[in-house]
Structure formats: C-alpha cells, structure tokens
Amino acid sequence: MKLGKVIGQVVSTRKDERLVGHKLLLVQFLEPGKDGRLMSARGDGHVEISVDLVGAGVGEIVLLCSGSSARNAAGVIDAPIDFAIVGIVDTVDVCSDEIM
To answer: What pTM did the predictor assign?
Structure first.
C-alpha cells in the first residue's frame, strides 16, 4: 500500500461502463522526509487518478492499493483500475531518527 494526498477530482461523463458509479480523485503520493514530515514522493509533483472506495475528499491523506489489489477492492476484477483509495488516514507518526 501507499500513502497519498487527495489534491483534486476528475469528472468524466463518458467512460468505460465498469467505472460508472465510481468517484475519481487525483492523488499525489507521499513519503516521509528526513525531518519526519510527509512530502511528495516525487519531486516533479506527479499525480495519479484513483478510484475512491471510501468517500475521501480533497486535502485528505489516504491509503492506496494498486494493480489487481485495486481492482479486487473495487469489486470489478476486469475494470481498468490502476489505483484505489481504500482508507482515510487519521494520523501518521514517523520517527525521523529511523529514516536514512
């Protein structure tokens, strides 16, 4: 699983029928920095579109799964889903002394 921050949403009125009924959100992946705070996992601000399965909103930190795990979580094994939001994070505690 990965951590990410929801930074926006995608609205698509025409899409694959297996995606109908799923909310699509823009997520930027996060990782702990040397100071223990969460920061962008890639310096270029790269984002991915994720299927929201838990009712997440913009600004929230979320748990993501990818690949077949994302499709299984969405309940549509053959859907074109790369990432799924499967949890909303309450807190993240990082011991910065452990980060190399």
So the answer is: 0.87
